[in-house]
Amino acid sequence: MTAPRMLTGDRPTGRLHLGHYVGSIANRVRLHQRYDSFFIVADLHMLTTKNTREDIQQVADNAREMVTDVLAAGVDPARATFYLQSAIPEVGDLNTLLQNLVTVPRLERVPSLKDMARDSGKEEMPYGLLGYPVLQAADILCVKGQVVPVGKDNAAHVEVTREIARRFNGLYGTVFPVPELIQADTPSLVGTDGAAKMSKSRGNTILLSDDAAAVRRKVMGMYTDPNRVRADVPGTVEGNPVFAYHDVFNPDLAQVAELKERYRAGRVGDVEVKEKLADALNNFLDPIRERRARIEDDRGLVDQLIFEGTERTRREVRQTVSEVRRAMGLTSAYTRMRRRAERAGRALAANG
């Protein structure tokens, strides 16, 4: 029996961080053994906010780093198909065929698009960014994805995919499965600055590839309770990024509970709380670092995985686009014209 398909991935804008892990990668690691899993390196999506020549020149290196991070986090390369989005032009064909199945007002209601434009310094919404959810629908539907693990930001995007799939099937006959969303247990992770979610553009990240010293340095500089000027002043745990990280990454629940009790009572300093968090994070990241080192020692492995995965995916996408064109009736119009032209040509040749 063929396994159901999962589609997930990231834009190749650099190494992945703990926010990526809690938002999507943990789900991918847990789910990919159960599904025929496609991992997209979404460089066309990257162009919506990062499209200089320098940005594009970094795609190959960033793709390698990104795939290495995913493998180091625990994804089995034998159970995953990695592919480069821009190397499959048929995805663009499908995007064109789907874009008329959704309205501009519907896309304008996707909340994260304005945030993405603002975070990338765009004063106005680029056309490609407005159409981001349609291209994402093409990504999911081109491999007939049935499951999409998503973070909080992408849930609204995938809902657009579900609407497009239903609309297409209703108009032209069933071609696409309507994908199911699987949301992360921790929807988002606040950055080390405490001001916003963890984001590479804000520089408030802890990378999956950071060494132990870098993690400790970043943790010791984390935002805490701004009203707490001394260790003997009772502090606030709720909304405190240091404790938010403890809740996600520190498996010693008794230690976390004791630290919270002492913090609220003014009986522990920020330094001790942060030191214990740094220990917990480094214990969490150590196995990831070890797997990353082994992957990096196997030179050419990641490039081979991306190449072979892209070739496999392109074959799948070509088949899907062919089915879509047939369902819509686009192939029959040209076929009739071609046959009439061929008959006319034969008649002309016979009379000439």
- State the name of the first-level CATH class of the largest domain: Alpha Beta
Structural class: mainly alpha
Helical segment tally?
16
Strand content: 5-15%
- Kindly give the count of domains: 2
- In spatial order, strands of the major sheet run 1-2-3
Q: How would a textbook summarize the main sheet?
A: 3 strands, parallel
Mean pLDDT: 92
Unreliable residue runs: none
Oligomeric status: single chain
Under CATH, the topology of the largest domain is which? Answer: Rossmann fold
N→C terminal distance = 58 Å
Task: Name the CATH homologous superfamily of the largest domain.
Answer: HUPs
The CATH architecture assignment of the largest domain turns out to be: 3-Layer(aba) Sandwich
The succession of helices and strands, N to C, reads EHEHHHEHHHHHEHEHHHHHH
Number of strands: 5
Shape: elongated
Helix coverage percent: 55-70%
Radius of gyration: 24 Å
